[in-house]
């Protein structure tokens, strides 16, 4: 927002409670925008492959305390699910920057938002790591914004596309990079990594209880595909309980994905930069999906209060209600925290 723009109307206070049912929240969404994904989820109880249901939408929108005319950042644009609703809330007159590192999905999302009627004056897709949020704002002569939103991790499109190499359910090249033109693929990273480094990644990135035996078996190995890697994990631990086995494979994939994309380094840089990106009274809301992420967000926000950077932060976490968890299992691990800039 430029210097001359009048201050947006007062924010409506957010209680953190949302009594509405999942179906009620989504049934009013325009099917032309969201396709029939929500109907499919409601009918089948799971998210169809290749589609993305934005998580805790109403809770995120409420936490950001949006109003017409605001300028802000969606630091993890993804499929643009949250971005679309944010744009509706800040209309007329608002502006949203949508950051993402993914060169494959971001152009599709940009096209989708343009088709929904948001021109360059209202929405800009920025190919940037959220670690560089300050630079993204400074290069556009934006001193600070009214809100910043982040929905961490991978999108369903990334996870469900076998060619991206994130999934152990459908085999593909073992890649896992959100930006495939940067850094090492997961296959190369595993081949080059030491037992100690892999063990640390398994503990820090996924709280893996069998980190020692898994790292001894897997570090330095060459795995071409996601199914090769999943098989090697299964052989390394030999757990009879199939559910626990699946959870172990899932945790190892998560730990390697976080290492390959240097997700915690980026998250720390983003959280450090955040207070300077927000106007006084500006809001940040961050959705996390596992303990490593949530711990960081919680610590940075609490330290921000101590250091006089935030006047208020969420008390505890806001989580998806039972209906949303049932309809969209990907929401079960989501935790929302928010903060208000002093
Ligand atoms: C969970 S998805 C976001 C989904 C989005 N809220 C929606 O409703 O469609 C997370 C997105 O963040 C992107 N991402 C992950 N790490 C990032 C980083 N360090 N900087 C910028 N984008 C990142 C991923 O590429 C992915 O598209």
UniProtKB/TrEMBL annotation:
Residues 20-29 have a biased composition (Basic and acidic residues). Keywords: Cytoplasm, Methyltransferase, rRNA processing, S-adenosyl-L-methionine, Transferase. GO terms for cellular component: cytoplasm. It is found in: Cytoplasm. GO terms for biological process: rRNA base methylation. S-adenosyl-L-methionine binds at residues 80-82, 100, 130, 151, 158. Its EC number is 2.1.1.199. Residues 1-29, 322-342 are annotated as: Disordered. Residues 8-19 have a biased composition (Basic residues). GO terms for molecular function: rRNA (cytosine-N4-)-methyltransferase activity. The keyword Methyltransferase applies. It catalyses: cytidine(1402) in 16S rRNA + S-adenosyl-L-methionine = N(4)-methylcytidine(1402) in 16S rRNA + S-adenosyl-L-homocysteine + H(+). It comes from the Bacteria. HAMAP family: 16SrRNA_methyltr_H. Specifically methylates the N4 position of cytidine in position 1402 (C1402) of 16S rRNA. Belongs to the methyltransferase superfamily. RsmH family. This is Ribosomal RNA small subunit methyltransferase H. It comes from Luteolibacter yonseiensis.
């Amino acid at each position: 927002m430029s210097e001359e723009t009048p201050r947006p109307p007062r924010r409506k206070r957010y209680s953190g409670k949302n009594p509405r049912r999942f179906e009620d929240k989504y049934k009013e969404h325009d099917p032309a925008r969201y396709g029939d994904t929500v109907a499919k989820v409601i009918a089948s109880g799971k998210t169809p492959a290749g589609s993305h249901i934005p998580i805790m939408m109403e809770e995120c929108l409420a936490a950001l305390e949006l109003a017409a005319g605001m300028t802000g950042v969606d630091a993890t644009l993804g499929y643009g699910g949250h971005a679309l609703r944010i744009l509706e809330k800040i209309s007329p007159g608002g502006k949203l920057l949508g950051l993402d590192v993914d060169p494959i999905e971001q152009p599709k999302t940009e096209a989708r938002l343009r088709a929904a009627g948001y021109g360059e004056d209202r929405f800009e897709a920025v190919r940037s790591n959220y670690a560089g949020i300050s630079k993204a704002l400074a290069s556009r002569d934006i001193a600070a914004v009214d809100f910043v939103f982040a929905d961490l991790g991978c999108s369903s499109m990334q996870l469900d596309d076998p060619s991206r190499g994130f999934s152990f359910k459908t085999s593909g090249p073992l890649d896992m990079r959100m930006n495939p033109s940067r850094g090492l693929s997961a296959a190369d990273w595993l081949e080059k990594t030491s037992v100690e480094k892999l063990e640390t990644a398994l503990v820090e990135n996924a709280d893996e209880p069998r980190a020692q035996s898994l790292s001894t078996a897997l570090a330095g190995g060459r795995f071409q595909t996601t199914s090769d890697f999943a098989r090697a994990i299964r052989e390394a631990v030999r757990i009879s309980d199939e559910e626990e086995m699946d959870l172990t494979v899932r945790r190892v994939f998560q730990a390697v994905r976080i290492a390959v994309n240097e997700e915690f380094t980026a998250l720390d840089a983003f959280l450090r930069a955040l207070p300077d990106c927000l106007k006084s009274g500006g809001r940040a809301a961050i959705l996390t999906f596992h303990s490593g992420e949530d711990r960081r967000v919680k610590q940075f926000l609490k330290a921000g209060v101590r250091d006089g950077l935030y006047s208020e932060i969420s008390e505890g976490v806001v989580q998806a209600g039972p209906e949303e968890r049932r309809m969209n299992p990907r929401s079960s691990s989501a935790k929302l925290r928010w903060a208000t800039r002093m």
